[in-house]
Amino acid sequence: MKKIAVFTSGGDAPGMNACVRAVVRAALYNGLEVVGIRRGYRGMAEADFIPMESHSVSDIIGKGGTILKSARFDEFRQKEWRQKAYDNCVKEGIDGLVAIGGNGTFTGAKLLMEDFGIPTIGCPGTIDNDLYGTDYTIGFDTAVNTALDAIDKIRDTAASHDRVFFVEVMGRDAGFIAMQSGIGGGAEDILVPEIPDSMDNVIESLKKGGDKEKPSHIIVVAEGEGIGNAHFIAQKAKEAMPNLDIRVSNLGHVQRGGSPSAIDRILASRMGIAAVEGLIDGKSNVMAGIIDDKVAFTSFDDAINKKKDLDVELNKMVEILNS
Ligand code: F6P
Predict the structure, then answer these.
(1) How far is CA 312 from CA 195, 207, 211, 316, in A?
(2) What does the pLDDT look like over 268-319, one tens digit per residue?
(3) Is 236 marked within a binding site?
(4) Is the CB of 127 under 6 A from ligand 1?
(5) Which residue of 36, 63, 204, 257 is surrounded by the most CB atoms within 10 Å?
(6) CA 139, CA 255: separation in Å to the nearest integer?
(7) Is 48 a catalytic residue?
(8) For residue 4, what is the DSSP state?
């Protein structure tokens, strides 16, 4: 292994830059050459490579987004695009790849590996925290804190007006951001896809809040919630309880931005170094995660296909904390 490439792909996440920095510095520390690929698989297929030196990653550990840029590139499902990408890697003399991203990124890496055998290690970078094989993904902690800050602010205005708020947070099909920001923000209810909910339960929760004369009532809704999105649920709640003053706030992409938290910077740095060391040790087709505070490698297959469980017991806490 003489030269490696690093890229970020899929939805960006705070801490991706810290991970790029760790990969570059760990590669240089181990005597490897390193290049960056801009815009993930698109850049690989279009030969958008940039040489990375130590100074290329100076002052980026605290920056949100990704200096390498990111893209969702569905064309990579087609072999002809993977062939182009592989040919470009060969021309560039690349012996191994570090892919920073989520499920889609690792699916692409796995296909590339199966087609051409180019050694690849993944670092889990997504705010959703939905990857099996790591306790936390890069960006999740920052996203939770961003959502929490918003919920705190919504609480101020909700209490001033005696209002009910449905706050929708990201997470794709997973409820990790909703559960943690909801508990941290003292939400009266949290709706996540992992736990079956019904409008009856939502109305019940609103009635309980009314009985206790709570000045505000916040229900955090994960974007993948089974009943529907926050607007739909709010509309149904208004039909059932027309006297309530209800508002909806969808936090959206604000959750993807911002300076990464200390936890994300350190997690990203550990994972980036682990990925480079893994490549040097001959590992491939695996994700470098952290389980119980120790580096752990999990096959792309498992990281993509096995479901990471949300601790549904946390929901019990919500009930207790609202009694
Ligand atoms: O995977 C991260 C994520 O932010 C999800 O939470 C969300 O469903 C999705 O990406 C949004 O993607 P886009 O920015 O492409 O609309």
Answers:
(1) 7, 23, 26, 8
(2) 999 999 999 999 999 999 999 999 999 999 999 999 999 999 998 998 999 9
(3) no
(4) yes
(5) 36
(6) 9
(7) no
(8) E
Q: Which domains does the chain have, with CATH numbers?
A: 3-139+260-305 (3.40.50.450), 142-256 (3.40.50.460)
- pLDDT, one tens digit per residue, over 167-189 is 999 999 999 999 999 999 999 99
Catalytic residue selected from 48, 74, 95, 128: 128
Nearest 5°: the CA angle 262, 267, 273 is: 130
For residue 276, what are its two tokens?
């480079």
Q: Is 125 in the pocket of ligand 1 (CB under 6 A)?
A: no
Decide: pTM greater than 0.90. yes
Q: b vs e for 110-127, b when ≥16 Cβ sit within 10 Å of the residue's Cβ? A: bbbbeeeebbbbbbbbbb
- Cβ–Cβ under 8 Å, residues 252 and 170: yes
Q: Is the CB of 168 under 6 A from ligand 1?
A: no
Distance CA 24, CA 51 (A): 10
